[in-house]
């Protein structure tokens, strides 16, 4: 349980943030595995086997090494105390939401493979369109005929993919409009 006195103390704000992050991520992981508890993929015989124990030990050793190397040699982009980068820090809800999404479905490719996350992607696309001043699904239909099209958008994994997609759209538009 979280110590609320830490939340009230200004000097312990960062530690409290760490405690909250651990609490939320742990809760997300526990809920995920509670939903899949009935599916036993690794039974007690496997857990007790020497090869399983050896592989778990190797995984722990490599994760410890990776954590140490990252802590020693990486720029702390995650930290709000580090302002030397061009992107802002990720908020706690964003990180917890990302982890929860990765636990359930890492492959947001089609509505059939990812019904909830595809829907959330559509809603976020509509929000971005409204933010940029385009007509979205939630705007009232104007009293003109035909009404202007409803904007859409989707989330890409990074800026490079977004730029490549925009070039592809322009090329397709030019090819279609030239015919």
3D architecture notes:
- The chain has 179 residues and is mainly α.
- The chain has a domain at 108-179.
- 60% of the residues lie in helices and 0% in strands.
- The chain is built from 7 helices and no strands.
- The chain has helices at 4-8, 13-35, 44-48, 50-73, 92-104, 115-131, 159-178.
- Helix 2 (13-35) packs parallel to helix 5.
- The chain is elongated.
- Residues 1-14 have low confidence and may be disordered.
| Largest sheet report | none
Task: Give me the Rg, rounded.
Answer: 23 Å
Helical fraction: 55-70%
Query: Could you tell me how far the N terminus lies from the C terminus, measured between alpha carbons in angstroms?
Result: 66 Å
Mean pLDDT across residues: 77
**Strand/helix succession:** HHHHHHH
The count of strands amounts to 0
Q: In DSSP terms, counting alpha (H) and pi (I) runs of 4 or more, how many helices? A: 7
- Structure class: mainly alpha
Q: What is the approximate shape?
A: elongated
**Would you identify the regions where 5 or more consecutive residues have pLDDT less than 50?**
1-14
Beta percentage is under 5%
């Amino acid at each position: 349980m979280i110590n609320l006195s830490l939340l009230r103390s200004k000097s312990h704000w960062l530690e409290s943030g760490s405690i909250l992050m651990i609490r939320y991520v742990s809760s997300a992981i526990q809920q995920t595995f509670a939903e899949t508890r009935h599916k036993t993929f690794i039974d007690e015989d496997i857990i007790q086997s020497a090869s399983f124990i050896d592989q778990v030990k190797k995984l722990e050793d490599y994760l410890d090494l990776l954590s140490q190397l990252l802590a020693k040699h990486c720029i702390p982009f995650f930290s709000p105390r580090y302002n030397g980068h061009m992107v802002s820090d990720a908020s706690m809800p964003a990180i917890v939401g990302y982890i929860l999404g990765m636990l359930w479905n890492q492959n947001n490719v089609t509505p059939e493979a990812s019904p909830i996350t595809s829907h959330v992607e559509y809603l976020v696309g509509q929000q971005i369109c409204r933010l940029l001043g385009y007509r979205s699904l939630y705007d009232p239909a104007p009293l003109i005929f035909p009404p202007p099209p409803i904007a859409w958008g989707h989330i890409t994994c990074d800026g490079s993919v977004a730029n490549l997609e925009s070039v592809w759209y322009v090329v397709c538009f030019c090819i279609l409009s030239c015919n």
